[in-house]
Automatic annotation (TrEMBL):
<dbReference type="Pfam" id="PF17900">
    <property type="entry name" value="Peptidase_M1_N"/>
</dbReference>
<keyword id="KW-0031">Aminopeptidase</keyword>
<dbReference type="InterPro" id="IPR001930">
    <property type="entry name" value="Peptidase_M1"/>
</dbReference>
<dbReference type="InterPro" id="IPR045357">
    <property type="entry name" value="Aminopeptidase_N-like_N"/>
</dbReference>
<comment type="similarity">
    <text>Belongs to the peptidase M1 family.</text>
</comment>
<dbReference type="Pfam" id="PF17432">
    <property type="entry name" value="DUF3458_C"/>
</dbReference>
<dbReference type="GO" id="GO:0008270">
    <property type="term" value="F:zinc ion binding"/>
</dbReference>
<dbReference type="InterPro" id="IPR042097">
    <property type="entry name" value="Aminopeptidase_N-like_N_sf"/>
</dbReference>
<dbReference type="Pfam" id="PF11940">
    <property type="entry name" value="DUF3458"/>
</dbReference>
<feature type="domain" description="Peptidase M1 membrane alanine aminopeptidase">
    <location>
        <begin position="223"/>
        <end position="435"/>
    </location>
</feature>
<dbReference type="GO" id="GO:0006508">
    <property type="term" value="P:proteolysis"/>
</dbReference>
<dbReference type="InterPro" id="IPR014782">
    <property type="entry name" value="Peptidase_M1_dom"/>
</dbReference>
<dbReference type="InterPro" id="IPR035414">
    <property type="entry name" value="Peptidase_M1_pepN_Ig-like"/>
</dbReference>
<feature type="domain" description="Aminopeptidase N-like N-terminal">
    <location>
        <begin position="100"/>
        <end position="183"/>
    </location>
</feature>
<dbReference type="Pfam" id="PF01433">
    <property type="entry name" value="Peptidase_M1"/>
</dbReference>
<dbReference type="InterPro" id="IPR012779">
    <property type="entry name" value="Peptidase_M1_pepN"/>
</dbReference>
<keyword id="KW-0862">Zinc</keyword>
Amino acid sequence: PQTTYRADYRPPAFLIDTVELDFRLDPAATLVRARLAFRRNGPGPMRLDGQGLALLEARIDGAVLPEARLGLGADGSLTVADAPDSGMLETLVRIAPEKNTELSGLYTSGGNFYTQCEAEGFRRITFFPDRPDVMSRYTVTITADRARCPVMLSNGNPDGSGGNEDGTHWVRWIDPHPKPSYLFALVAGDLVDVHESFVTKSGRQVALNIWVRRGDEDRCGHAMDSLIRSMRWDEEVFGLEYDLDVFNIAAVSDFNMGAMENKGLNVFNTKYVLAKPETATDGDYQGIETVIAHEYFHNWTGNRVTCRDWFQLSLKEGLTVFRDQEFSADQGSRAVKRIRDVRGLRAAQFPEDAGPMAHPVRPDSYIEIDNFYTPTVYQKGAEVVRLIHTRIGAAAFRRGMDLYIARCDNRAVTIEDFVAAMQEASGVDLSGFMGWYDQAGTPELTMEDRYEPEARRWVLTLRQAVPPTPGQPDKHPVAIPVAMGLLDAGGAELPTRLAGENEAKPGTRLLMLEAAEQSFTFEDVAAPPVPSLLRGFSAPVKLKGVSQDRLRFLAVHDTDPFVRWESGLQYATALMLQMVAARQRGEAPGFDPALEEAVRNTLRGAEADPAFAAEALSLPGEGFVADQMEVADPAAVHAVREGLRREIGRRCGDVLRATYDALAEAGEYRVDGRSIGRRALRNACLAYLVAAGETGLAEAQYAAAGNMTDRLAALSLLADAEGPAREGPLADFHARWRGDDLVLDKWFSIQAMSSRADTPAAIRTLYAHPDFDLRNPNRARSLIGAFASGNPLHFHAEDGEGYRFLADAVIALDPINGSIAARLVGPLGQWRRQAPGRAALMRRELERVLAVPKLSKGTFEKASKALA
Ligand code: HT7
Ligand code: ZN
């Protein structure tokens, strides 16, 4: 397969000003007529992307193009010889949506029609220069059988409809805004809508519709409410207003990702739309809020201002994730939101940055662009936007956004355009931040300090190093904003004065580390202080050199909630690593009484902020701990973590039980931050109590639960139990919810992540279960993904059965949906960090995948880079 390089970018030879599309929908043979008004833009032939299209007709300015002027490439593209500099190209193609199992282009799901065009799906619908720097105005006419497709939607505003005598009907949609082809969308079928209306700040009336399958109408309330809050927030915080008469959302159960921001017609995975308390957890509710906001915010950051090429993907994704994170932070507890985002970053992006697929936020090359919708482009990209925000401040950032939008509206631009707008609006030189876009690898930040009593001076030395990554052996320093403060021995915040400053500043201040090493001298420091660094996680780095004593102190005293949580986490991580080492030496790991003290302390103050307490109570995950080891030992990490949970549950049983009882839900189920926090804390207590042997408590909670959050929390604990305590609830859950795809996914996941010894065998049985369907991405992820990414103990089983299962599944899935297969193969790439025996087994499975004839280019790219 071919590699595409960023350095090879050339402007398109032809632009397309307007597109008229005419669809005659039929599952087996859909006809697509396209009329493209083209105009020359640069040198080169007229080349239109295409994939799997049966070309029936081609004309320019009405004249049929003879075959001699049409070149069909092996990749499915179409080259037109001797094209004039401007004119109208008309093509007619036939496609088969019902055969489209990749879910890219036009496909059917449950008898309805849906499209997914990002990144390169439009070429599977019609011949077109399918690249984001070709922006056009679209008029779309859809014709279909009226009974089969009473609803027919596309981008923009509706512009007429009518009936035909043959039982079909038609609708026309006009999108007044120029857009790239990846934002095209069509949805048609038997759908019902939940609707509201929204009046924008300038008085424009917008019809809001959420289109779902009949019967799902009662699950759209939270999505609609999240949409309305997102629209209002973007007006208030960024002054950005919606720009069409309608905003449609269609939910589909077969979808490769979370959702898609098509102009005026977002298409969503049902997982991010449908929720009611009996079927959706608090996590699901939060996911819906985030994804609805994210897709809505793309209307400006992505759609009105789009990317010049796919290497600039983080221009829209990093910025839009930053915007959705800020939105969610404003809806509830900013500190808890930051903790959760950092947890997510460390669970997914840090390992990616340290593995074989490590790539910069702006990659240099790709084989399959679908493989670059990654935590690095999304989450690290958002962190880089946050770095700029932290450096220049909220007011300058807002001015920068205004400038960026004003200057780049209706254009396809680059990351430089964004940074230039921020730089001009703030007057701050941001060149030191470009390294964050162009270098892979998580920087390591080391601290060292000394106190000079006679001079009453405290000196902080910070060093940074960006580790080598594939293709980038040497790195240069980047700009790292370090938000920090100093505490005295009693935990009080000290005002700080740097050498050269006239006055001391109260509270948190920002140090800018721009070189490989820099020292900062603080004056008037009466006694050795305790530094609190990276407040709010001001940069996505790994901080080293903070002693266990200081961590313990900061976990209790710091004024910054993020550092309080972080210090507890780092303390526990270091402790667990020592315990793992002891276990590997055959010694008893012991128990640090500081942990009991920390749990008791957290529970004492839990009432003030239960969500924070729940975060503070949870031990570092097995993956996070294993990631800190030179050679991972998943079984030892699991044993140590389980042992700690049991011991904490035993020693703190009294306070855990008291908190559990005190938080029993009274009254109606609510999804506000405080109610969610109370449930999270209660279920955290339950987990410790069950670890200490109180299985009956989980059985009782499962039976009595009035909502999915509590029911699932109990069931996931019972899934590790023995005998009827496990089998009864699992069977009950299946019987209750077998008709509900999203809930049944949870049933598969819970079993896939069980630590029971028989899990590897159970996985194979579940794979053969009549309710398992490899073609549905949610279901495939719920079993295969949950096992490979969420069950390190069994995935890394010594006999290699976990690896074998994953490779078998990837090989079976690849011809059906290469994009999902490529995503799932990722965990096999962790072999370098495993012991030699397991590493060899992992490599063998990667080789087995690579040996498959006609492997998709996405899976080829992931597996071959993993082995390199
Ligand atoms: N921009 C959307 C990305 C997306 C996607 C990419 C490749 C294949 C299928 C896809 N579905 C959606 C989602 C987003 O970031 O908002
Ligand atoms: Zn996005």
